[in-house]
Specification:
single chain, alpha+beta, Chitinase A, domain 3, seven-stranded antiparallel β-sheet, 7 strands, 24% strand
């Protein structure tokens, strides 16, 4: 390499190094307020909940269902009324059911797995299903639309239900013991 090229290369590297080591210009704090990671997560969560609610409302409207909405976001519609007292915590519920995604894909049903049997209030099923059951009585048939936070949440069920999925139940309360 000739000396002139070598000297020019050294000068270029020195000028680059000097320009990189200068203090950056101060940022206008008012124009770019610091946003905490928590605030960012809260905004993202609000956006996701709002989007899921809009998707659920559109789904219900497409089907022409007249559903009730609870404070938690559960939607339900009793389309055939049974008799007897409302379900209570501690009772064992026996349900015929079909569990679908909001896309219409059937994932589980009592036709293939048998009736769903569980003790109300002791977990083991979606919190949205337990909430809905407390609004029903023996013989009721109902459609439920359960938002992801009341269903299988961020992880899904690790089998057929994908992460952050809204689920739809068509249930019949066969028995309450």
């Amino acid at each position: 390499m000739n000396t002139a090229v070598y000297i020019n290369l050294i000068m270029f590297l020195m000028s680059f190094s000097i320009s990189c080591n200068q203090n950056p210009r101060p940022v206008n704090e008012e124009a770019h307020p610091k946003v905490s990671q928590q605030e960012t997560l809260i905004k993202a969560n609000r956006y996701l909940v709002k989007s899921e609610n809009e998707e659920i409302d559109n789904y219900i409207a497409r089907h022409g269902w007249n559903m009730e909405k609870t404070g938690s976001g559960l939607r339900y519609m009793i389309y055939q009324h049974g008799n007897g007292p409302l379900a209570k915590k501690g009772q064992v519920a026996v349900l015929n059911y079909k569990l679908m995604l909001i896309t219409g894909d059937v994932l589980y049903s009592s036709d293939s797995t048998g009736p769903l049997v569980f003790e109300i209030g002791h977990g083991g099923v979606e919190s949205g299903l337990e909430e809905a059951l407390l609004l029903l009585r023996k013989g009721d048939k109902a459609m439920l639309v359960i938002p992801s936070h009341l269903a299988h949440g961020l992880l899904g069920d690790q089998k057929k239900i994908p992460p952050r999925s809204t689920v739809v139940y068509n249930i019949e309360v066969v028995n309450l013991k």
